[in-house]
Write a structure and sequence with these properties.
- By secondary structure, the protein is α+β, with helices and mostly antiparallel strands.
- It has a domain of 88 residues: Structural Genomics Hypothetical 15.5 Kd Protein In mrcA-pckA Intergenic Region, Chain A (Roll), CATH 3.10.290.10.
- The chain is 31% helix and 19% strand.
- It contains 4 helices and 7 strands.
- The strands form 2 sheets. The chain has a 5-stranded antiparallel sheet.
- A hairpin with a 2-residue loop joins strand 2 and strand 3.
- The longest helix has 13 residues.
- The N and C termini lie far apart (49 Å).
- 17% of the residues are buried.
Length: 129
């Protein structure tokens, strides 16, 4: 860990550890309350320090990461493990595997768009599942 930083803005940290592709996406996620720190919503200017638990929803899974060290600059993927630890419970990760086995609506290729009646039937079927 070459940097000797004690605190870093949360939006900058999320970008630096590659949880978001751009810093502006990280800022928007924090502003919209998607990123929680120890269960509470924070502002993008919130400063992270070692020991915090961040909860970040991605799809149906709420990932949890523990901050190991703050950093100012984006690091390569192999170095991310030095700055954060994935502490997501197994129950959350299991949601990804259960989605693979969920039934989905299927239409034969080349049958065109569904009619109104077929669409209503599909919607009814999706609500019952």
């Amino acid at each position: 860990m070459p940097e000797h930083v004690t605190k870093t803005r949360i939006d900058k940290w999320l970008w630096a550890v590659r949880l978001y592709k751009t810093r502006s996406l990280a800022t928007e996620a924090v502003k919209n309350g998607k990123v929680k720190v120890n269960g509470d919503s924070v502002k993008p200017s919130f400063e992270v320090f070692p020991g915090l638990i961040l909860t970040i929803p991605k799809g149906v899974v709420k990932y949890q990461y523990k901050v190991l060290a703050p950093l100012e600059r984006r690091v390569g993927a192999p170095l991310v493990k030095d700055y954060m630890e994935d502490v997501t419970p197994e129950e959350e990760k299991m949601k990804l595997t259960t989605l693979e086995f969920m039934p989905t609506a299927f239409r034969e290729k080349g049958t065109g768009r569904p009619t109104k009646k077929e669409r209503r039937d599909l919607d009814d079927w999706m609500e019952t599942e």
